[in-house]
Design a protein that fits this description.
The strands form 4 sheets. The protein has an 8-stranded parallel β-barrel with strand order 2-3-4-5-6-8-11-12, surrounded by 5 helices. It is an alpha/beta fold. It has a single domain, classed as TIM Barrel (Alpha-Beta Barrel), CATH 3.20.20.80. The protein has helices at residues 2-20, 52-55, 68-73, 91-105, 116-119, 131-146, 162-168, 176-191, 204-212, 227-249, 251-254, 275-298, 303-315, 328-334, 364-367, 391-403, 428-446, 491-502, 508-531, 533-568, and strands at 38-39, 45-49, 109-113, 150-156, 197-202, 257-263, 266-269, 341-344, 348-353, 370-373, 409-413, 451-456, 476-478, 487-489, 504-505. The longest helix is centred in the last third of the chain and has 36 residues, at 533-568. Helix 4 runs parallel beside helix 6. It comes from Amphiprion percula (Orange clownfish).
Length: 569
């Protein structure tokens, strides 16, 4: 007990140190240095990620309840091409095969999420626990550990039980705090003897803004100017309660860590000599990541958020700010509830000042008074929002270091997509993206940033939310048109595997050979994929149909032009 007491005091001291040693970030310094050859510290953890709804499938199998994403995706017009996650990658049935893929890659960890409605179909622990769901995650965790792969478990990756949305309005209702805590407590009870890394929420920004402000994501609510702030307020409270539950009931027995995963683009001032642009860029980050990080590390929302939302609310004739307020007791309760920070990052924006008058209406986006820009020279290999800007990653990591007292960081999501029906597995753009972004992370660690692990997003091509299956982030190609959902390794598998085995970038000669070797390896996978009858048929149809359609379009245009000319003569 004395030893545990000393450890406990050390833990508290580390948290106090973490929340009290922030410094100012130097916006005028942007070191865009050349590629750095070097390796990561011994023990650095390499992994890949997924989430339950995006990969498991089996949406109504073995007692699983409906989630908000099941309901949302089943509504026509909500998802591109009306795709759903009903089957997805069939990970519920193929997890053993997937773990073998991870083992071959020599991954140190695998990040996945537990489906709340798979364990608690009604959302409530007091009503029914689905033992089939418990067994599935038991088997997954046990096999990972048997293969020396550390499970990093996300408790909430967006799949709220639909019944809680129907009855209470989901995260608009403060009752979710206790219901989520009950679910988390069940996970600690059943899996905590083997799971030592817990993430409460993945990217709460998306849950709040896209779920309750824009309605692009489940549950599809459009509560402009209020819904996102209210949802975020309850999510932050829920995170803190789960952290305290683990701290008081489980930490001494299980010796685990509880963190939260925040996703943030970097915001760079358009003109680093212009104070208004600098202030706009910092606002961009504070309204994005700081919205959740500041309460967890400092006990309250960023001052700039309180100022701007409060001022806009006053201009709109409201009696109180649309941004909720934490009581003094809540601030104390929330502050320091983070053993590690999960950080997701994909891209960067240039940011400049732009004033939105109060007459434009309530809106999270208008509250920020800024405009986002991109450089047309930035590579954009896939998603329309995702540009490859590696130096922004180093900037973001250093910002976290200075703002939040250099917390322990696990990069929980980083990767790039292709937005096309792509059957070429030689994904050179993804290899380049991983090379450049991982190298910027290595530079940030040289700067003193406390990064402990990196998670590639994603292990497999999967269901990408409102974009359905049109965007592919996976290291492994999944043939979704085949009922067996076969996996085929892309060249980036071999490339990432070499980064892992070398623990970084040992020397220029070796690193420059990796891409060539990876492309050579992927050629055989391309042959296997081409041998798939369905893929071969698709390619044949494309070769025949596309030229035919183009020819018809030209002929019709010519006929239409003839009619126009005849009418004028």
């Amino acid at each position: 007990m004395l030893q545990w007491g000393i450890l406990r005091l050390y833990h508290v001291f580390a948290l106090v140190l973490c929340v009290s040693t922030s410094e100012d970030f130097d916006w005028t310094r942007n070191d865009r240095t050349s590629f750095y050859y070097g390796t990561f510290p011994t023990g650095f953890s390499w992994g890949a990620g997924s989430s339950a709804y995006q990969t498991e499938g089996a949406w109504n199998i073995d007692g699983k309840g409906m989630s908000i994403w099941d309901a949302f995706a089943h509504k026509k017009g909500k998802i591109l091409y009306n795709d759903t996650g009903d089957a997805s990658c069939e990970g519920y049935y193929k997890f053993k095969d997937d773990i073998n893929l991870m083992k071959d890659m020599k991954l140190n960890h695998y990040r996945f999420s537990i489906s709340w409605p798979r364990l608690l179909p009604s959302g409530l622990k007091s009503e029914h626990i689905n033992e089939n769901g418990i067994k599935y995650y038991d088997d997954l965790i046990n096999m990972l550990l048997d293969n020396k792969i550390t499970p990093i478990v996300t408790l909430y990756h967006w799949d709220l039980p639909q019944v809680l949305q129907d009855k209470y309005g989901g995260w608009q209702n403060v009752s979710m705090v206790n219901y989520f805590n009950d679910f988390a407590n069940l996970c600690f009870e059943r899996f905590g003897n083997r799971v030592k890394y817990w993430i409460t929420f993945n990217n709460p920004w998306s849950i709040a803004v896209e779920g309750y402000e824009t309605g692009e994501h489940a549950p599809g609510m459009r509560l402009r100017g209020t819904g996102a702030y209210r949802a975020a307020h309850h999510i932050i409270k829920a995170h803190a309660k789960v952290w305290h539950t683990y701290d008081m009931q489980w930490r001494s027995k299980q010796k685990g860590l509880v963190g939260v995963s925040l996703t943030a683009d970097w915001g760079e001032p358009v003109d680093i000599s212009n104070q208004r642009d600098i202030e706009a860029a910092e606002r961009y980050i504070q309204f994005y990541m700081g919205w959740f990080a500041a309460p967890v590390f400092h006990g309250d929302y960023p001052q700039v958020m309180k100022d701007y939302v409060g001022r806009k609310s006053g201009q709109q004739g409201l009696g109180a700010s649309r941004l909720p307020v934490f009581s003094p007791q809540e601030k104390s309760y929330i502050k320091g509830t983070c053993d590690f920070l999960g950080l997701g990052h994909f891209t960067t924006r240039y940011v400049t000042q732009k004033n939105y008058p109060s007459g434009v209406g309530d809106s999270y986006f208008a509250d920020r008074d800024l405009a986002e820009l991109v450089d047309p020279q930035w590579p954009d290999p896939g998603s329309e929002w995702l540009y490859s800007v590696p130096w922004g990653f180093r900037r973001l990591l250093n910002f976290v270091k200075t703002q939040y007292g250099n917390p322990m960081i696990y990069v929980t999501e980083n990767g790039v997509s292709e937005k096309m029906l792509c059957t070429d597995l030689c994904d050179d753009w993804r290899m380049q993206y991983y090379k450049d972004y991982i190298n910027e992370m290595l530079k940030a660690m040289k700067d003193g940033v406390n990064v402990k692990g990196y998670t590639a997003w994603s292990l497999l091509d999967n269901f990408e939310w409102d974009e359905g299956y049109s965007e592919r982030f996976g290291l492994f190609y999944v043939d979704f048109r085949n009922k067996n959902k076969p996996r085929y390794p892309k060249a980036s598998v071999q490339y990432y595997k070499r980064i892992i085995s070398s623990n970084g970038f040992p020397n220029q000669r070796e690193v420059e050979s990796w891409k060539r070797k990876a492309v050579e390896t992927c050629s055989s996978s391309n042959q296997l994929l081409a041998a798939d009858p369905l893929i071969g048929h698709m390619e044949m149809v494309t070769e025949i149909v596309v030229p035919t359609v183009c020819t018809l379009c030209i002929l019709l245009s010519a006929i239409f032009l003839m009619f126009l000319l005849r009418g004028r003569l």
